[in-house]
Amino acid sequence: MPDGHKILIVDDDPDQVDSTRLILESNGYDVVVAYDARQAFETALAEKPDLIVLDIMMPDGTEGFQLVSRLRNELPEEQANVPIIIVSAIHDYTTLRLYPDQSDTTYAPGEYLDAQGFIDKPAEPRQLLGKVAELLRKP
Amino acid sequence: MASRPLETVDPELRDRMRWLIGLRWVAAFGLAVASIVSSFWPALGIAWHPVLGLALALVVANALISAAVARFPPVGETGLRRFNKAQIGVDLAALTGLCLFSGGVHSPFLAFFVFHMILTSILLSPRDSYEGATVAVGFIAAIYLLTDRETRQGPSAVLVVAVMITTVYTCVYLTTSITTALRARERERARLTEELAARAEALRRAYDEIEETRKLELRYMRKVAHELRSPLAAAISSLQVVGLGMAGELAERQAQMVGRVETRMRQLLKTVDDLLLLARERARANAVAGPGDLVSLAAVIGAVVELLEARAQASGVALATDLPPDLPAIRADREALTQVFTNLIGNGIKYTPEGGAVRVSARAEDGAVAVCVADTGIGIPAEDVPRVFEEFFRASNARSHAAVGTGLGLAIARSAVEALGGSIRVSSQEGVGTQFTVTLPIEPSQGPLAVSGLAPSPPE
Description:
By secondary structure, chain A is α/β, with parallel strands linked by helices. Chain A has a single domain, classed as 3-Layer(aba) Sandwich (Rossmann fold). Helix content of chain A is 35%, strand content 17%. Chain A contains four helices and five strands; from the N terminus they run E-H-E-H-E-H-E-E-H. Chain A has a five-stranded parallel sheet, with helices on both faces. In chain A, strand 1, helix 1 and strand 2 form a beta-alpha-beta unit. The longest helix of chain A is centred in the last third of the chain and has 13 residues, at 125-137. Chain A starts with 5 loop residues before the first strand and ends with a helix. Among the domains of chain B are: 6-153, no CATH class; 291-446 and 454-460, Heat Shock Protein 90, CATH 3.30.565.10. Helices cover 63% and strands 10% of the residues of chain B. Chain B has helices at residues 11-40, 48-71, 76-100, 112-123, 126-146, 155-243, 252-286, 297-314, 334-350, 396-401, 409-419; strands spanning 293-295, 318-322, 330-332, 357-365, 368-375, 423-429, 433-441. In chain B, the strands form two sheets. In chain B, strands 2-4-5-7-6 form a five-stranded mixed sheet, covered by helices on one side. In chain B, helix 9 (334-350) runs antiparallel to helix 11 (409-419). The longest helix of chain B is centred in the middle third of the chain and has 89 residues, at 155-243. Chain B is rod-shaped and about 140 Å long.
């Protein structure tokens, strides 16, 4: 059983937050949540999570992308490398990628994002837990 | 006519202006030679003193004209026209002088008036040329009147004047009619060139607009995808949590019902995904075909096979590939190709019973590559074969073999293949197996400027 690692869930959909939270909590993780990018950054700063599960498509569209770079650039040094797992309703499964072509600059290419995992919604609990455990094992 | 800077004026007109100056040097030289020859040979009937004077005067005039051109280049078409008119006036006056000193109305140099009229008609508009002809006629009349009485006595002098006048006007008429036709043709050519440039520009704009529309379409589809999938994903996640007992233990019957709901929700999600894919492939088919990247088919098929290997093993189906090492790369969209072969190979695995096999082979054809996905599966009833590419169509035996399926996979594959300029064929025997053959051009014929409406539609 994991040992009380703290995980931050960022998602604007409260139902999604609840089920992800249940999955993680029932496996022994501590969970903190945020429902928008601003709150997410503040929570990350205050709670120092060991890992962040981030929904990339928040209402403003680019919010999730900006949050990733903000976390990487503005968090204190010891926190800046916190692992991030990106979950999205439109990433790989539908192949409606975040970056349909190079000329479309509205969205950054998903693969270029400084994140350690990409999972499509609905996230399979086993897949999510496996990825979380894998990233937390790393030094 | 709006006056334009000299550079944009008909370059021929400008060159002729310089040409006239050059000719005048030759004329002045000729006059000087004529006067010197006459000084030794008075029988020629040329008064050599005045003619030498005339030659000198022409040299001075021409020097002034060259200086004026260098100093104050005539601006615009009107300026150039006026300048050429003045030059011709100077020349006609000089010619008149020459004629007066070389026999008056009987001077052989009178014929040069015709030469000057040809020049005038080439250089100036028809109207200006007739004006010039009238001035010339005035000079000829002056020559007649200034010729001494004895010389112009008799009908021959009058005849010379009459012939000269007729010739001058006829010459202007003939020359201007030719130059007018030539100029009209030149103008037409310029107009056509301009029109062609305008059309190219319009085409480019249309292309940009299509590109813009395509981007908006993609953005819209992404939004739709998100709006449709997000609530479904949230619902499925919640059901999973309940089903797995993470929100409290469930009685067996409850767990069963929750599982059933989850299955149906997943079916719905799959349908939504497939519809989105189909819409995307349709949009791609209607979009302007860009030049595309060179894609290795072997690599794409290899990646798909690797991805589906686990599924094949779980179903007890052997998955094999037979791709020649020299298979050419093709110009296509990698994602679309991945989609096509995922659907075809995935179908093969799905509809092949345990112990069967799915084999992917490829060969290069004339300017194209043919990829064959063959399975030893349940096959398609003959009456259903023509309909397998229809949206939502599932063969009768497919429905009983696998409960889950949207009937969109093959429609998506066909849309994608056609968007790539290729074609897809099916042959099948019920109970024996099915074979799909995808033929893709190595270089799609549509250039970067091909607009969907103009592109030939792929054969059905």
